[in-house]
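tool_call: predict_structure(chain=1)
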Amino acid sequence: MSKNSINTPYAKRVAEKFREAQNYLKTNGFIRSTKHLLKDIENSVD
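tool_result:
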């Protein structure tokens, strides 16, 4: 994602959902899964 696209309302919602998912995974013992989650999200946006 480019830095400019982070400022859009859609990108802010995606970032918030990412943080929620990352926190959920860490809380439930899936710490290594969070690295791949970000890549999956970035690839879906491209």
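agent: The mean pLDDT is 75. Proceeding to next step.
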